[in-house]
Write a structure and sequence with these properties.
Elements: E1 21-29, E2 35-42, E3 47-51, H1 58-73, H2 81-90, H3 98-119, H4 123-127, E4 135-143, H5 146-158, E5 163-168, E6 196-199, H6 201-219, E7 224-228, H7 235-245, E8 250-254, H8 265-269, E9 276-278, H9 289-293, E10 299-300, H10 309-322, E11 326-329, H11 337-349, E12 353-357, H12 363-368, E13 374-376, E14 379-381, H13 394-397, E15 409-412, E16 417-418
Helix pairs in contact: 1-3, 2-3, 3-10, 5-6, 6-7
Bound molecules: D-gluconic acid and magnesium ion.
């Protein structure tokens, strides 16, 4: 009897002993910011790692993994990625949710890593091979005012970027989403308890078109420009902004409005042809099914760590492909290099690729997570080493203990809590 003929989920003598999972453990470390990493070991000595970081809620996922997932992994055949995914998803009874899906994603990523290492192949080969030579990425430029932001965009062009997200300070507001002191390593989770920021949508709406007019005036129409609304607008306000930005040829307007009500994107669509992107906080295909099937978006932002791993992200991308919706995986610094490595293999394979977000990690983070992907001239290249190509220096990680940090909250002028 071959291994394939074995009943799934059954641990029998026949399973190649070396594939049996012997240990699964969670490491929380903070080399500049917090990361949750799952390490899975097999009897044969092959180790796979997965990212389980959920910004501001790290310990919830770590505990979920430690208490409810890891004990279930030991003794299973690491090769049965699909069966383990289904076991963790259906078997929990409580479906979906960011904590559950990030935990499942970490297991899934670690198991794909192990499969690649056992096959001696980079992950993209296991998915179906290369669909492109390189992965177009966008970087983050931001400034306190329009002039400063335009300078920053020019600096990113100087660094080789072909696509740049631009965020700027808004007159009358002390702080704005996406604008920070450090121009390479933006980190919004800034305090143990949430800091509070004022928000004024009218001031924002009147200001942003001026930024993009100034940008096109200075840099022309060569580089692609993106903007993140970070859930702050109502659908009608988003329609107005999208319309005002049409002359400036945006690659996308992101998170124009919260998407719990997927139907609300229809109103935006009816008012503008500016391409729409959403999904960095989605964790399931059901969060975006209507958006995709009704062609209410152009780019889906779900990524490996928060959307159930490679196994589930692939399903989302396949559904999106039927409706000409392309991928644009979330790639902020709160997703560890492990997620980035896995996402780059996914990006290299996925037929309906759009773009990949790339916020650089700090040197300390890169030291803890040595990786073989590399940036050159506006593109990221995944490596050729077996698995996803990212390793984990646990000894070094131990020098950076967890630091409690949460994301800020936003309030309107009158004190009402708004979407951050
Ligand atoms: C993005 C995102 C991030 C999020 C962050 C929250 O487009 O990159 O909006 O900057 O704010 O991931 O943890
Ligand atoms: Mg975003």
């Amino acid at each position: 009897m071959t291994d394939d003929a074995l009943a799934v989920g059954e641990i029998t003598e026949g399973i190649e002993k070396e594939r049996i999972i012997t240990a699964a453990r969670v490491v929380v470390c903070s080399p500049g910011r917090n990361f949750v990493t799952l390490v899975v070991e097999t009897r044969g000595g092959v180790v796979g790692i997965g990212d389980a970081t959920l910004n501001g809620r790290e310990l919830a996922v770590a505990t979920y993994l430690e208490e409810h997932v890891c004990p279930n992994l030991v003794g299973r055949d690491a090769a049965n990625i699909e069966d383990i995914w289904q076991f963790l998803y259906r078997g929990a009874y409580w479906r979906r949710g960011a904590v559950t899906m990030s935990a499942i994603a970490a297991v899934d990523t670690a198991l794909w890593d192990i499969k690649g290492k056992m096959a001696g192949m980079p992950l993209y080969q296991l998915l179906g091979g290369r669909s492109r030579d390189r992965v177009l990425v966008y970087g983050h430029a931001n400034g306190r005012d329009i002039e400063h932001t335009v300078d920053e965009v020019e600096r990113y062009i100087g660094l080789g970027y072909k696509a740049i997200r631009a965020q700027t300070g808004v007159p009358g507001l002390e702080s704005a989403y996406g604008v920070s002191g450090d121009k390479m390593f933006y980190e919004p989770a800034d305090a143990a308890l949430p800091s509070e920021q004022r928000w004024d949508t009218r001031a924002y709406l009147n200001h942003i078109p001026r930024l993009f007019a100034a940008l096109r005036e200075r840099i022309g129409f060569g580089p692609a420009l993106l903007h993140d609304g970070h859930h702050r607008m109502t659908p009608l306000e988003a329609g107005r902004l999208g319309k005002a930005l049409e002359p400036f040829d945006l690659f996308w307007l992101e998170d124009a409005t919260p998407a719990e009500n997927q139907e609300s994107f229809r109103l935006i669509r009816e008012h503008t042809t500016t391409p729409l992107a959403v999904g960095e906080i989605f964790n399931s295909i059901h969060d975006c099914r209507e958006l995709i099937q009704n062609q209410l978006i152009d780019y889906i932002r779900a990524t490996v760590v928060h959307a159930g791993g490679i196994t589930h992200l692939r399903r989302i991308a396949d559904l999106a492909g039927l409706y000409q919706v392309r991928t644009g995986c979330h790639g902020a610094t709160d997703l560890s290099p492990v997620c980035m490595g896995a996402a780059l293999h996914f990006d290299t394979w996925v037929p309906n690729f759009g773009i990949q977000e790339y916020m650089r990690h700090t040197e300390a983070t890169d030291d803890v997570f040595p990786h073989d992907y590399a940036f050159e001239d506006g593109y990221l290249y995944c490596g050729e080493s077996p698995g996803h190509g990212v390793t984990f220096d646990e000894k070094l990680a131990a020098r950076y203990p967890y630091e409690p940090r949460q994301l800020p909250i936003a309030r309107l002028e009158d004190g009402t809590v708004w979407n951050w």
